[in-house]
Amino acid sequence: MSDFHVYDTTMRDGAQQEGLNLSVQDKLHIARHLDDLGVGYIEGGWPGSNPKDTEFFALAAKELDLEHATLAAFGATRRPDASAADDGLVAALRESGASVVTLVAKSHDKHVELALRTTLEENLAMVRDTVQHLREEGQRVFVDCEHFFNGYLDNRDYALEVVRTAAEAGAEVVVLCDTNGGMLPHQVGEIVANVMATGARLGIHAHNDTGCAVANSMAAVLAGATHLQGCINGYGERTGNADLVTSVANLELKLGMSVLPEGRLAEATRISHAISEITNYPPSARQPYTGVSSFAHKAGLHASAIRVDPNLYQHIDPALVGNDMRLLVSEMAGRATIELKGKELGYDLTGDPERLARLTDRVKSMEQQGYTFEAADASFELLLAEEMGTRPQYFDIESWRVLAESLPGSLDAISEATVKLRAGGQRLAVIGEGNGPVNALDHALRQAIEQLYPDVARFHLIDFRVRILDQGHGTDAITRVLIETTDGKDSWVTVGVGPNIIEASWQALVDAVTYGLRLHAVTPQTV
Amino acid sequence: MSDFHVYDTTMRDGAQQEGLNLSVQDKLHIARHLDDLGVGYIEGGWPGSNPKDTEFFALAAKELDLEHATLAAFGATRRPDASAADDGLVAALRESGASVVTLVAKSHDKHVELALRTTLEENLAMVRDTVQHLREEGQRVFVDCEHFFNGYLDNRDYALEVVRTAAEAGAEVVVLCDTNGGMLPHQVGEIVANVMATGARLGIHAHNDTGCAVANSMAAVLAGATHLQGCINGYGERTGNADLVTSVANLELKLGMSVLPEGRLAEATRISHAISEITNYPPSARQPYTGVSSFAHKAGLHASAIRVDPNLYQHIDPALVGNDMRLLVSEMAGRATIELKGKELGYDLTGDPERLARLTDRVKSMEQQGYTFEAADASFELLLAEEMGTRPQYFDIESWRVLAESLPGSLDAISEATVKLRAGGQRLAVIGEGNGPVNALDHALRQAIEQLYPDVARFHLIDFRVRILDQGHGTDAITRVLIETTDGKDSWVTVGVGPNIIEASWQALVDAVTYGLRLHAVTPQTV
Questions:
Q1: How confident is the model at residue B471 (pLDDT cuts 50, 70, 90)?
Q2: Cross-chain residue pair A115–B302, CB shorter than 8 Å
Q3: pLDDT digits (tens, 9 = 90+) for A86-113
Q4: Nearest alpha carbon to residue B162 among B178, B179, B145
Q5: B42 vs chain A: nearest CA distance in angstroms?
Q6: A9 inside 8 A of chain B by CB
Q7: Strand pairing of B396-406 and A460-468?
Q8: Superfamily of domain B5-279
Q9: Alpha helices in A170-279 (DSSP H)
Q10: Which DSSP state fits B231?
């Protein structure tokens, strides 16, 4: 692997995307996924600018154990006419615990004058002082030159002076940012080639406003940049930042560079999808390399030629990025994956091709309805157990009902659930209350069986995710619910799907309780 | 306007997108929109290959009255070892009534041998004969060289021979297709420049598999291509084709070319969205130039500078493509943003600093509870109106109730909602049913007020997004619901928040109906 920098800014610039909000826990999860992908640098946020980002760096220092990546803290050069040492935001960078600081600096003269409201000279001093100060304090410093390309076109000498000042003050990399995203690749290539003459190590930060974020990044690298910034799934303000996976895959697979640790690119599809579960932004089916449609062919005419040589019809082997070729007419994928997954869970299906085929058909048809087992191992294992005849039946549901209402004169809605079931030879009818309908159902179900199966008292729901599939059908759409449950030691994820969000949640709740009891090797009481 | 060809293939190659299906009527509507945008050529489909496309050309000849565009029929070169005049599919092209025929020809030697299963010589004869035959019959002919770039890299002489053969036989344009989409712009630029030496007029047809479809198209044009193919909204197989609007906007606004009739580019956003209504693919908020987020700013820090000069923060004036600048009200937002946002919506808050401060506090405290206004302009506008005392009160809710239950012996859960309210001097109590609890509430609310306010019959929910905030609190967490509603012309997004998903949805539904009625200038009937 070369010294090329793959630098992710999903959690800072990506989080500028309209509607994208990340909690501190979301950020910790995302950082682990990015590290798993093998990126070199993860920009965690802007400590000091808001309490959430400050908390993230504090928690990261304690809890994040990164294998490949170095955490970077983002911040700005000191305020005009002040000292770097006394600047509160600069102090937050020093105290963030991050070994790398990425400083944003103005490099477009108009922005210095109109947004920063200071002189061109003072801006250079701000860059110089802040970089020097942080270097003296022992941090590595990267400098993001904001609005660099527009600045270069308006006042080339000044833009270049900012680059030189940053490099001379000790910045390890000077990143040229197309902040407004208006450039085309031929311009970026030419400008980066010219800036290379400063001798500074250069990086590229591109936005997609002309649909060219990835291409602009490629042009910069071809012109000599050795540091590439981007966001997972192309998240970002307006039209988004350069998609990190597409950029990296192009570098490795098209330009023959080695920028991720060996074998990590093959995890890209899984990681891209896992992060989209966290952001709750459905992944685009058409996303280059990682989209579910990206290697899908309406086979028809070409079927025989595809069989002879699939590479005639695909630009790369999709396995290189962890994706699969799909034929839309006759779906062929699945069986091998299910066999592998079964093996992983301790079920050997190799000797029973008939059962494997039946299970594959069932998974496919459920996936068509909207189920996903990738994120719901527990529900998948129960399905497998059912197919093997070993799924325990701890209770037998007769009916359930939820009432949610907002009464005259009351501010809050209340929810009440009734669950009727048979277990241990008894018929039980129990009522549960909660501050939401699913919460009420959860209480009712656990209350009903707690005497028979005391283990359920130790189960707690720790995550509850809802995704509307088939967006564009309003309240009529299909809902997918993922529930994560823990017993304090292990945790497991179950799934439910349906047009009714409560029904979908109920399925996931029943699976969650069943899986937990089975995990604890609890014996079913005769239903 | 130059003689540059803007060539749309939405209805042929775009329709290869997974899940995209167009009826003949859909196609007629799309053709009218494309003509309205001012494209030069519209590829209508492949007559003879399926009854729908044949019918489209028959109806188009009768019903389509195009102002700017010429209709093109797509087809293939004749079968091997046959004559063009006797080929049924070639006959369908002749009889299509289209004055332009676009013929797909193989130009990659391996595809000739493995997919077409004929000799390289016979393939050249197929190109020559078919072009000559159609020219003799009076049609203009464009030739799409399929897999051209891979062919050029594998067997340059043969690929060039196909181009020459097509041009010499009378093809007006030879289109170089990156059918598998694997190229990068520097390669496309270099190869197109080399092919220019054949003297043929060249076109470009790019796919987005490396995220570079638009950039590859730009590279081809800069190298000499004068015919550009693309699809509206980047529709197409796998990762899609080059987005036509982005490509054309780049040519006009970045490269200073004039490729659409005067004034048509300013219709691009409207037309892009209108076509996405027909395809029933929700438009991407992040689509360059036309996306609703494409000129949206999380203002915060920059609000004051944006006030001084918005062009510091946008790569073009959004009005040039019929889009608007939007300021997002986010957690980072302060008073200046809310003032600007108010102005955008027609409320001048400058003269009333006390009200502005009150509104800012209220937005901040609601955002702390989990509301987000950056994606919910309509709820924000209602909040503003409330603060100004101008929010209309169309109805007064007394109570609502939802019952969701799964009965013994029944597979599906059913939902029933009761809404009690006062409006127009009456007390109304109405029941609604639905396949989910929110769907049932939506039906009940609208049914209750439809006689008083018939406009609600035109409102439809087109999107329903649920986000669980505070993940990690299980079913106890806070839920945020965003609902998008349309009246067929405008659309608006409202938000609701609460521990109870149904309560949160209810808030968003009430806002949605109130906003819509206010937008239609409906007068409230005395509550």
A1: very low
A2: yes
A3: 999 999 999 999 999 999 999 999 999 9
A4: B145
A5: 23
A6: no
A7: unpaired
A8: Aldolase class I (3.20.20.70)
A9: 185-195, 213-222, 244-249, 268-279
A10: B
